[in-house]
Amino acid sequence: MAELPDLTRQRLSIKRLLQLNKTTMIESRSIIKAVEDPFWSRSVAPSISDQDLLFRRAGVDLTVQACKRALQEAKLSIREITHTVAVTCTNAGNPGFDLLVCQKLGLNADTDRTLLHGVGCAGGLGAMRTAAAMAQSYYVRGRPARILVFACEIFSIHFPAELNLVVEQPELVRAMSVLFSDCAAAFVLCNELAEGAQDQSIYELVNWESTTIPDSASELELLMDPKAFKGTFTKESPELTVKAIVPLFERLRSSMPAESALAQSGKTIEAKDFDWALNVANKTGVQQCFGLHEEQLRATFDVYKTHGSSSSPTVLVMLDKLRKMGEGREHVVACNSGPGITLEMAVLKRTVRGDEDE
């Protein structure tokens, strides 16, 4: 059979991408620029330096907004923050975007800053785990900790270059432009010595675990290309993720702190006992594996349907959405997966029950 002409191959690659778009069940996605913005109609895709500049302006501003909302809800002033933990996978500039956010917020120059990179979609809970370790360290030292955690991803700035790659390399399927969206999310995590923290808390972090699937690094990647970030998701990665979640949940439930209500209940802890916030490649597979009802994943499916995946902030958005969807179960399991393949899982207890105002 003769090789197809380049134009025909390019048309087929775009057609495959459009077909993939229809199968995602995503109805809408959030992007930082309006559809009519000239950014989308440029004859030449923005360079990697253009993308970097846009992130460090618009992405930083979006993150500052999220941080201010988190501080307002926590009833904290910026002067009370002791640490920051930030995460992104869509910007690699130095100094990190976290410094720009801290400067715009007016944080003290002595604030303890940590920036996570290279963790992709696992970053939301990875940042939460990192903040929890910091809070514990301060508790042991007899010091209050009020940690501002924020995540930001701006995927849309990479879409023009990503679509160019679809045309230039039609033999490859590139899913990033049909799955991902733009988002920033933030929350404040405090230890027990932070005055007033319990009165303002929404969730209590009970337990957490992390794991990396051996020999899976090439299954899920987001690497630098001369023109943009280049995402790779193999057909095997969703199934690998589902298989790894089961033993991770086993570890989590068998290591509950003795003082927690779950450990003291004397009952066998089951997946069905929780609401879930799940940002992994195969949500339906996890649902079937644990026998979860759809209402236990109501926030997961709602956020995915209306926003797509925004990588690291997504699980945080799901947790925020879940608290506004009715009383639900007392405890929540949050889980996300990222390059590596790395999985993060946490158990949280609701401290505010019932409907909340949007």
Describe the structure.
- With about 350 residues, this protein is α/β, with parallel strands linked by helices.
- The strands form 3 sheets. A 4-stranded mixed beta sheet has the order 2-1-3-4, with helices on both faces. A 4-stranded mixed beta sheet has the order 5-10-9-8, with helices on both faces.
Shape: globular
Order of helices and strands: HHEHEHEHHEHEEEHHEHHHEE
Radius of gyration from CA coordinates: 21 Å
Strand content: 15-25%
Can you list the strand order of the major beta sheet?
2-1-3-4
Distance between the termini: 59 Å
Main pleated-sheet profile: 4 strands, mixed
> Could you tell me the mean pLDDT?
89
Report low-confidence residues grouped into runs of 5 or more. 1-5
Q: Which oligomeric state applies?
A: single chain
In DSSP terms, counting alpha (H) and pi (I) runs of 4 or more, how many helices? 12
The structure class reads alpha/beta
Fraction of residues in H or I helices? 25-40%
Report the strand count: 10
Give the SSE map:
Layout: H1 6-23, H2 48-74, E1 83-87, H3 97-105, E2 112-116, H4 123-140, E3 146-154, H5 159-168, H6 176-179, E4 182-190, H7 197-200, E5 203-212, E6 220-224, E7 229-233, H8 237-254, H9 261-264, E8 275-279, H10 283-290, H11 298-307, H12 314-322, E9 331-338, E10 342-350
Parallel strand pairs: 1-2, 1-3, 8-9
Antiparallel strand pairs: 3-4, 5-10, 6-7, 9-10
Helix pairs in contact: 1-5, 2-3, 8-10, 11-12
Supply database-style keywords.
358 residues; alpha/beta; four-stranded mixed β-sheet; 12 helices; 10 strands; 20% strand; globular; disordered N terminus
